[in-house]
Amino acid sequence: MEGTALLGRLIWRAAEVVELRPETSQTKTITFDVPGWPGHRAGQHVDVRLTAEDGYQAERSYSIASAADGSRIELTVERLEDGEVSPYLADELRAGDVIELRGPVGGYFVWNAHAQGTVLLVAGGSGIAPLMAMARQRAGESSGIPTRLLYSARTWDDVIYRDELAELAARGDGFEPMYTLTRAQPPDWEGYGCRVDTELLGEVAPDPSELAVAFVCGPTPFVEAVANGLVELGNAPSRIKTERFGPTGG
Ligand SMILES: Cc1cc2nc3c(=O)[nH]c(=O)nc-3n(C[C@H](O)[C@H](O)[C@H](O)COP(=O)(O)OP(=O)(O)OC[C@H]3O[C@@H](n4cnc5c(N)ncnc54)[C@H](O)[C@@H]3O)c2cc1C
User: Fold this and answer.
1) Fold match between domain 2-105 and domain 118-244
2) 153: closest CA among 78, 69, 101, 84?
3) pLDDT averaged over consecutive 10-residue blocks of the chain (250 residues)?
4) Which of 56, 95, 144, 181 is 20–30 Å from 211 (CA)?
5) Fold of domain 118-244
6) Who lines ligand 1 at CB under 6 A?
7) Is the whole-model pTM more than 0.70?
């Protein structure tokens, strides 16, 4: 049965674009309707496949940014100027277009509604996408699990889901977003203004005895620096879950 369920998830499905929403100058959220979608857990991703008229195909992975919602899923795509797939998704797709995707993929980097202690989410750039799915799922379940988010972006205008994160914080249910802006900070900025390093993690992360689990997502060097920093602070590697988006720094 398990094998049949797994195979069911890994078939390519037609996904129709129902809405496109610019988030920042470089990112767009795309809502798809996927008939037959089996549901997903916050943190999982999909594989997207594009096929050109001459049959050439390109495949990339994208985290699901939305909480489970029937046959609808949302992806937030950052446009890499020299990229093959992301500019197409971010700039060329229109409502009504159909592309192929399969999933959900991944069972390790997923929100656990029964976590004991404080959950730490650490995002670099578009690495916020699966962590936003977790924040949304948490809110949807009215979960009170204390959850801190440390989100590193270049500037305030590059912070994706800015308003929704503020709304989630305003619920006062234990969700606490914190920001570090590495390139420029607005006047009167009260957040952090440095790259995420061990010192900053020491200020923001819960005490190792309090940490339920840390989810770290972003460009590969960012994820490695954060995971190493958390270990240096005395956290068990088994409590640090990572998702690497790509080969270069962001
Ligand atoms: C599990 C998983 C989940 C992901 N989720 C998301 C998501 O939610 N949103 C999202 O925007 N991306 C996500 N990615 C990254 C995505 O899969 C693509 O790698 C990205 O969109 C670039 O594809 P491209 O075809 O435009 O660029 P490519 O043509 O593949 O690469 C163009 C150039 O960009 C560099 N590059 C490739 N990927 C990245 C990257 N991620 N960051 C910086 N430089 C890169 C390449 O080295 C190359 O120089 C995820 C990746 C993984 C593995």
Assistant:
1) no
2) 78
3) 59 97 98 97 97 95 97 98 96 97 96 96 98 98 97 98 98 98 97 97 98 98 98 98 77
4) 181
5) Rossmann fold (3.40.50)
6) 45, 60-63, 76-78, 80, 82-86, 126, 129, 219, 243, 245-248, 250
7) yes
